[in-house]
Design a protein that fits this description.
The structure holds 4 protein chains of 4 kinds. Chain B is 46% helix and 16% strand. Chain B is of the alpha/beta class. Chain B starts with a helix and ends with a helix. By secondary structure, chain D is mainly alpha-helical. Helix content of chain D is 76%, strand content 1%. The chains are: A alpha+beta, B alpha/beta, C mainly alpha, D mainly alpha.
């Protein structure tokens, strides 16, 4: 444990009946760090966050905030502040009253409250909205008020519970950048829960990928993206194609036992395995010929994605997709060559 | 603000009670001295239960108000009927809901069985001297020491005038001309049952009512009634008549008086020639009353000639005093103790003891009658 | 801040147990006032009543302390009481059925009408709740009989030539009973309707279903549990009401509520009245248990 | 083609039916009210139609009678007390049900709801017998307004509880969590966030409890004394003898008391709604 550790989870366990929602999770968050919990729904990320916030009871392990054990404290005695998915603004209070709420609960003097309201609203660029009621705000504005409300109490850690998931795409991108900017400016400590890897990559100091109640990998976004340590992380981050194959002494077969035209640069051990490649890293036709790994496949259909064309390909029972800028001059039914580099391929058994 | 006011009222009452006791001692011993009594009971309150309805109104106007004016007291009356006994019984023994209650024989009987009333010190009620002995002659010994007789009510026959039928016999209730147009009491069914008992001269008084075997023929007589609808209380009776649902009714003195005064041209009322079943209105001090002396004063006041005259002038009941002035609207008011005996057949307290021993059987039988006689 | 983390296990434990005790105690502290009211002012009188139902009734007294099953035996052997039990159940069944039908139609109407009518209708539906039962009885009393408003109105309009009366009929009793229970039914059903997406109707019509078919295929299944709950609520309610049917209905409409009142006040037979009350309350409790289980099914169905 | 005709015809039939039903239901609910109001202006002593002479005679009679006015005052005081007691206890209890895990939940639920379905005469007599003799600090319980309030709460509190249990289910629980999260303890959260969120429910609860108490007469009959007798008790006693238009007046006054409260509350509610809604 170092001086700069803000939050520490030690072997945290949370059960709902027979389901283990959080399974022996340990995590350190340093001061000023922005850690994202990323995972599909049901992976335990929200439960973990709610345990930190004090909305759920721990079934095992401990939680420390600034070196003090807090897992026995109720939510209102923890120095955390949550930004909820829906904003969870108090509908009967004005924007200013919402922001002032946490300060009043902490018995901050009145003039100091006034000052902090204006500061906080300034930060989230909502000056002049003080007297409005939440019903008079747009979705994005609501979330910004929620952010201001949480920032105003200057908590030891900010907890974001999928705050952008209810917004539409453009607003989401806008607010995402805003949170990023605020973090750069204010250097607050935060845990951010999301299932959107774009958000996770864009904002985080570190990303913790969660699966089935446990953290599969935690590291910088780039590392998680480029060097996933597990099959789950690899498949969850970024797009990927899976080629389930059997390696025999005779060559490589698909699941049905038919030989496929797959030629690999490195020899694989015999037996069943899954080869993963990302559509963006596949090269087609002439570009493919230079690469160590190659596959002959038939074009199944073609999607136009704007900047790219996505070619859906079939080789025996194997299916994969490859992106290519511009047309390659081949149509549906044509057989083409695909190639990729060794470092763009992962094999899991 | 109201709250503090009522608290003040209570305090003042307690205070007055204290001073009343201290200051008024000689007055109470000396009794009957009006000017001292006035000072003694000033501001003290007393609640007397009278029958609900018109009776209550007349009671307030002719007794309560003049009494308060005379003694500067705060006497009040509330109406009551079948809940009286239960109400006293349910209340704590030392804090009854009212101080004085009206009671006919049934309420007397069940209240006495439960020890809910207090004995009367005759020496404090000098006016008892002027009362018809009939009241005491129709009471069993066990009850004679309790309460005072004030008057009494009787069953009456009421018929709509425009039918041109004079209410001179109870048999009219069975008359073809009134078939499907009569009404009688199904809640206090004993009065209804007493009608055929009054008509039959088989046994003295209403004695045949008191045994299930001899009452059966009376019930069979009732089975032949053709009622429009039975009534359960005074309001229903009034509604049946007012709404033209019924043209004739077995009614009671005070209800009948209401009909007579409210619509003098509409109904004709009388005690038929056979006489009528009746009850005596006794007034009891309720056990645990905190206004014992005032209650005595009040009960004596109820028996004063002016009081009785005032009440009689606005009612169709018969009074306890012998020397009352009979108003013009009261045709055939009894003139002597013998007249009382001839005209009024009381359901006696002894009778009540017998009926009550078999109450459920009577009630079941009456419900059969009701089932048989209603559509 | 602190350089090393110090976890004082003992103080943590005491804090934690204190916190947990607080958490365990909290609901009971919150429930305390309600429980005091119920346990003290309902529990104790109920115990008295149950005890009372085993007392003797003799000598013109309201009750005589003792122990007998006589009143319960009487209750289930005397045709007066057994018939009253049947009458009560029958009356409650039919009245609740009528209440549910009218309440359903009313709630449907309010649900389908534009929102600006809504407040007005809700105010209307509240009216029977807000008016004293005496006033309601009194009102129908002046409407149904020969000299009532109905007869007078029809006569003045020349629709009839002789005064008519609907007073003191089972119909009048039903009209009064339904009037009293309608609001409860209405609000339960309205809340169910409010949980339904109105676009379902359009979708169904879009698929070519006639309104009747839409009702049968879409609305009825969606509101079915609500109907059951509304029905049982009305049923419980009508079981206990006695003043309205007894004042408006025919002579022979003897319900349990009426007999309790009669035994208690008129006949001064407190033990019998108590026995009747005990049986009535057990019946009501049984219906409530069933309703409660239906309600939990409903919520689990929705979630 | 063939399905076009019935599609056009059926809505018409439905429209007519809906209109007929609207007329029916409005009439049904208003009839006893209007009849009573009309009758209260009858000059005659008897309640029957037609009304030949209209007057305010019975209103003058009502307001001139100290007995009836005292009763009205008692009724209102008791109703206010009942509303306060039953709303407080019912709301807290419903919140406990919403917020916490309670062992034997259904059993408590039924226990709390039971009194609502007990006949008034049983409750009234039972409470009178059980508590009639008790006095606290020299203050006799029997006949006190407080005892009647508590007895009326036996009906009002379960209703409040039922209403609030449903109301609490409608609030977005995350808003409550947000309050905890910002440091609001359970008590402050309850008063600052939860109560305002369910203000309509609270107001309805107050109103219902007030109305139930204002209209109840059987329990009050057994628990009141000379100083605390309520208006419906007097009405009930006079209904048992001949009915006069005074009863209609009393009904109208009772109803007016309720409707005045309702109007005030409605106005408040609409103002509140304007503030919070878009």
């Amino acid at each position: 444990m170092t001086v700069s550790t803000a939050l520490e989870l030690r072997n945290v366990i949370r059960r709902f009946g027979t389901v283990v929602a959080v399974n022996d999770v340990s995590l350190n968050v340093s001061k000023g760090e922005f850690v994202t919990l990323l995972g599909p729904s049901g992976s335990g990320k929200t439960s973990t966050l709610r345990l930190v916030g004090g909305f759920e009871n721990l079934d095992g392990g401990s939680i420390l905030l600034n070196g003090q054990r807090i897992d026995h404290l109720p939510a209102y005695r923890r120095d955390t502040a949550t930004i909820f998915q829906s904003g969870a603004l108090f509908p009967h209070k004005t924007v200013a009253e919402n922001v002032a709420y946490g300060l009043r609960m902490r018995n901050v003097p009145k003039d100091a409250i006034m000052k902090r309201i204006s500061e906080s609203l300034d930060i989230v660029r909502l000056k002049g909205f003080e007297a409005r009621y939440p019903a008079q705000l747009s979705g994005g504005q609501k979330q910004r008020v929620a952010l201001a409300r949480s920032l105003a109490v200057r908590p030891a850690i900010l907890l974001f519970d999928e705050p952008l998931s209810a917004l539409d795409l453009s607003l989401r991108l806008q607010l995402r950048a805003e949170i990023k900017r605020l973090h750069d400016e204010l250097k607050f400590t935060a845990i951010y829960v999301t299932h959107d890897q774009g958000e996770a990559m864009a904002m985080s100091s570190r990303v913790a990928v969660m699966n089935a109640g446990a953290i599969e990998q935690i590291d910088k976004p780039e590392t998680v993206f480029h060097s996933p340590t597990s099959e789950f992380v690899y498949t969850f981050i970024g797009e990927s194609c899976c080629l389930p194959v059997r390696v025999t002494s005779a060559g490589i077969e698909d699941k049905k036992g038919q030989a496929v035209g797959l030629r690999l640069g490195e020899r694989l051990a015999e037996g069943e395995c899954r080869i993963y490649v990302r559509p963006s890293r596949l090269r087609l036709i002439s570009e493919a010929a230079l690469l160590p790994n190659q596959l002959t496949a038939r074009i199944h259909f073609i999607e136009f994605l704007g900047d790219l064309y996505r070619y859906h390909l079939k080789a025996g029972a194997l299916e994969l997709a490859a992106d290519h800028a511009g047309s390659i001059g081949h149509g549906v039914g044509d057989e083409i060559e695909i190639g990729w580099r060794n470092e763009d391929m992962r094999v899991f058994r | 603000m109201k709250k503090t006011f009522s608290l003040q009222k209570a305090n003042r009452r307690n205070f007055l009670k204290g001073t009343a006791l201290a200051v008024a001692m000689p007055a109470i011993i000396g009794r009957a001295c009006v000017s001292t009594a006035k000072a003694a009971f000033e501001g003290e309150s007393l609640i007397a239960v009278s029958w609900s309805g018109n009776y209550e109104q007349v009671f307030r106007e002719t007794i309560i108000n003049p009494f308060n004016a005379k003694y500067n007291t705060k006497a009040e009356t509330v109406g009551g009927w079948d809940q009286i006994v239960s109400q006293i019984k349910a209340a704590p023994a030392d804090n009854p809901p009212f101080d004085v209650t009206v009671a006919e024989e049934y309420i007397s009987s069940s209240g006495l069985a439960e020890n809910l009333y207090m004995k009367t010190d005759r020496s404090k009620i000098p006016n008892l001297e002027a009362v018809y002995p009939w009241f005491y002659e129709t009471r069993p010994d066990k009850a004679k020491e309790y309460g005072i007789p004030f008057g009494g009510g009787t069953c009456m026959l009421l018929i709509r005038k425009n039918l041109g039928i004079a209410p001179d016999s109870w048999s009219l209730l069975w008359d073809e001309r009134l078939a499907g147009k009569t009404t009688a009491d199904s809640a206090a069914w004993w009065w209804t049952l007493s009608v055929p008992a009054v008509m039959s001269q088989l046994s003295p008084g209403l004695d045949e009512m008191y045994d299930m075997s001899t009452a059966e023929p009376l019930f069979q007589q009732l089975d032949k009634l053709k009622v429009a609808k039975w009534f359960k209380d005074g309001a229903e009776q009034a509604n049946l008549l007012n709404q033209d649902e019924a043209d004739a009714a077995m009614s009671y003195s005070s209800d009948a008086y209401t009909f007579m005064t409210q619509s003098p041209d509409e109904y004709t009322v009388a005690v038929p020639k056979e006489g009528a079943s009746a009850w005596a209105d006794w007034y009891f001090k309720v056990r645990g009353t905190k206004h014992n002396d005032l209650a005595d004063l009040f009960m004596n006041y109820m028996l004063e000639k002016e009081t009785q005259d005032r009440f009689l002038s606005q009612s169709l009941i018969f009074m306890a005093r012998k020397d009352v002035t009979v108003p013009a609207h009261w045709n055939g008011y009894p003139k002597s103790n013998e007249d009382y005996h001839k005209m009024f057949q009381i359901i006696t307290m002894d009778g009540w003891d017998k009926i009550n021993a078999n109450y459920q059987a009577y009630d079941d039988r009456m419900k059969q009658t009701i089932a048989k006689t209603s559509g | 801040m602190t350089d090393a983390v110090r976890i004082d296990d003992a103080s943590y434990e005491t804090q934690r147990t204190a916190q947990e005790r607080r958490k365990l105690l909290a609901p009971w502290i919150l429930m305390l006032p309600a429980l005091v009211i119920v346990l003290v002012f309902f529990g104790i009188p109920t115990v008295y009543m149950v005890r009372m139902s085993f007392n003797l009734h003799m000598d013109q007294r309201l009750y005589v302390p003792g122990f007998t099953f006589e009143h319960y035996v009487n209750l289930f052997s005397n045709p007066l009481f057994t018939n009253a039990i049947l009458t009560t159940i029958k009356l409650a069944l039919v009245a609740s059925l009528a209440t549910v039908v009218i309440g359903y139609a009313f709630a449907l109407l309010v649900w389908l009408k534009p929102a600006r009518w809504r407040l007005l209708f809700i105010g209307l539906a509240l009216a029977p709740l807000l008016i004293s039962e005496i006033a309601i009885i009194f009102g129908w009393w002046m409407f149904f009989p020969k000299n009532g408003l109905l007869s007078y109105g029809l006569l003045s309009a020349g629709l009839i030539h002789e005064k008519i009366s609907l007073m003191y009929t089972e119909f009048a009793a039903f009209v009064g009973l339904v009037y009293v229970t309608l609001p409860y039914c209405f609000f339960i059903l309205l809340s169910i309707f409010d949980g339904i997406d109105k676009r379902l109707l359009e979708a169904s019509a879009d698929l070519g279903a006639s309104p009747l078919k839409t009702f049968r295929e879409v609305m009825l299944p969606l509101t079915w549990t609500g109907i059951l709950v509304a029905f049982s609520q009305s049923f419980i309610w009508t079981m206990g009401t006695y003043a309205t049917p007894s004042a408006l209905g025919p002579d022979t409409l003897w319900t349990m509520g009426f007999l309790i009142q009669e035994q208690m006040l008129g006949k001064h037979n407190w033990p019998m009245a108590s026995a009747l009350a005990v049986v009535l309350v057990i019946g009501v409790a049984a219906v409530m248990v069933v309703t409660r289980s239906m309600q939990s099914e409903r919520t689990s169905f929705h979630v | 083609m063939s399905d076009v005709a019935p599609r056009g015809a059926e809505p018409l039939v439905l429209k007519v039916l809906a209109l007929a039903f609207t007329v029916f239901i409005v009439g049904y609910i208003l009839v006893p009210i209007l009849v009573t109001v009309a009758m209260s202006f009858n000059d005659a002593a008897m309640i029957r139609f037609p009304i030949n002479v209209w007057s305010m005679k019975w209103y003058a009679d009502f307001f001139g009678s100290p007995q009836w006015m005292d009763a009205l005052e008692n009724s209102i005081l008791i109703a206010i007390g009942t509303a306060a007691i039953s709303t407080t206890s019912g709301v807290l209890c419903a919140w406990a049900f919403q917020r916490f895990h309670i062992p034997f939940r259904d059993m408590w639920y039924i226990l709390i709801m039971m009194p609502l379905f007990m006949p008034g005469v049983v409750l009234g007599l039972g409470v009178a017998i059980a508590f009639g003799g008790i006095s606290i600090g020299g203050y006799a319980f029997y006949g006190s307004r407080e005892l009647v309030m508590l007895a009326h709460s036996l009906w009002a509190m379960p209703l409040v509880f039922m209403l609030m249990e449903a109301t609490f289910k409608t609030i977005d629980y995350r808003i409550v969590e947000a309050s905890y999260d910002l440091g609001g303890g359970p008590v402050r959260t309850f008063f600052e966030v939860v109560l305002p969120l369910v203000s309509t429910g609270i107001v309805s609860s107050l109103l219902f409890a007030f109305v139930i108490s204002l209209n109840e007469f059987v329990m009050a009959l057994f628990l009141t004394d000379r100083d605390t007798q309520t208006l419906p008790v007097l009405m009930w006693l006079s209904l048992r003898s001949a009915g006069t238009p005074r009863l209609a007046v009393a009904s109208v006054i009772l109803a007016l008391t309720v409707f005045t409260c309702l109007t005030v509350i409605m106005l408040w509610y609409i103002r509140q709604l304007r503030k919070v809604a878009r």
